[in-house]
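Aim 2, interim progress: modelling of the magnesium ion-bound target.
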Amino acid sequence: MIRQAVIMAGGLGSRLKDKTALMPKGFIEIGGMPIVEQSVRKLFAAGIEEIIIGTGHCAEWYERLAVQYPGIRLAKNEGYAETGSMGTLACCAPLVYGDFLLLESDLLYDAIGLTVLINETHDNVLLASGATGSGDEVYLESDAAGFLVRNSKNRTAIVRLAGELVGISRVQKYALDQMVSYMNAHRSDEPKMEYETAMSAVSTQSVRIFIRKIEYFLWREIDDASHLTMAEALYPKIEEAESLRQIRREVLLNPGPATTSDSVKYAQVCADICPRETEFGEVMEWIRAELSCMAGKSGSIETVLFGGSGTAADEVMLSSCIPDTGKLLIVDNGAYGTRFAKIASVYKLNFDVFKSSGFTPLDTEAVKAKLLESAYTHFAIVYHETTTGLLNPAPELCRFCHDHGITTIVDAVSAFAAIPIDMDREGFDFMASTSNKNIQGMAGVAFVFCRKEALEPLASYPMRNYYLNLWDQYQYFKKTRQTRFTPPVQSLYALRQAIIETKCETIEKRYKRYSACWERLVKAVRKLGLTMLVPEEAQSKLITAIIDPASPKYSFEDLHELARGHGFTIYPGKLAEANTFRIANIGDIQPDEMTTFTQVLEIYMRTL
Ligand code: PLP
Ligand code: MG
Ligand code: MG
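Predicted structure of the complex, ligand included:
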């Protein structure tokens, strides 16, 4: 699996003269965005977890880019003026831990090239194209089997032409090490070595480098003014080619499964793999580690994955985290609190329910008093009641529980990855979530986050079920890097991509985006004279329950059909006490899309 990319961006770009005197080449804008930023986005969308950029000339530009994209790491080539691209690549080498994609910074290209290299069966691959007529071609010569023999800018030096070098390659860590050794051995005779030279040199010795040609690949390298003109002319063609691969957009305003990006959808389309292979174990381990980092301090959380929906994670917690001697208090102020109580009764736990209204803020003092009334050992609460959009004061109550030695169990199914959570700070011992809500992945993976100290005692608790047992699943994965039962392979690949994208956006900024969508909705709701069920200050800003319009003509089905016709899916209410419909604003959606939805809502309201 390819997890890293390296972009060599140290060069002076002197052939572009004044354009690059004070700026690296990669920051030339085409179509309103620096070409290197377009490349960064394509790499993350293709499933690259980390991009290492080798900088030099005007490195501060890249330092600013790295602030915008947390998945970027920088390595500066201090000697950039006296070395070539191989010198920059050598500076990146210590950060590389496996097979990676290697790119030049001055490229405009169709993202399909990345997919082709990721799908390659050869370990070391140069991407090549047919004739570009750019005037700066690097020609590649291959042997009869298609492996690199030499490269040259002189066409006549090439015997068997395999294509033109694009500047995007797939490289093994071992090959990189060989290239660095070759460079070091030739420092005095070739101080300004280019990476192609080192690659050709090692290819004849210990490493075989395959040339993968795409005859009509859309790409341009920008080394001088004429290249820039050609690249600008090519840009619309690249845009068109990429747009043809877009998937029809449906904006889900139901409270999950949420709208996903195309890159998350495409992450599921990959080579078949047996989930018991080491490679897949590494994927799951990475997912576990990254999710743990999103839920609390590094090293303090263990994430346990199950095949299943959010309810599976809730059932895991209630069935696995309470000893026979335990006594549980459940807060029920919505459908998911009620579900907690139902699960507790199925497992015949010793529990009480604290019942409260689904649309007025929870009386925290009353809950605290109830907690002290009896010898409760465990407390369960839904952080965000998706039923109505009510955000419960779970952190305050769980911290109170911690002060009184009570273990806490939190359903954060629809809160996690939108509302920033630090389980240590909030006093959450166990927390449930799922792959298809705010993390913006596909349905099928349930996860339980555990504070390590709270997890260890589970070793001695009775096993009340088999498939959903937390301790067994945790132990088995720790020992084998496998789940006990068949995992949802493709949903896990989608989750991996969703995590890459969440890290790019950050949870803080995601919540800001969601809140911006919510504000657009609330503005329209007020303008249309509609009423929200929950007082604004108690709302999560993730889901809004709106009381049905009073008109006798109102029909949820009609509104649903109209919205569906415009590409929006909405959801009915879920509360016995009030007739509502619900608009969620989670997932891969933008504020302008919410505005479009409010216009549809307005059209419908006029028909009443
Ligand atoms: N808990 C909460 C707070 C939810 O919002 C949901 C689903 O919407 C669930 C649990 C159950 O999740 P699932 O339908 O994936 O089982
Ligand atoms: Mg060139
Ligand atoms: Mg170049």
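The two ends are 56 Å apart (CA to CA). The chain has three domains: 4-243, 277-505, 507-606.
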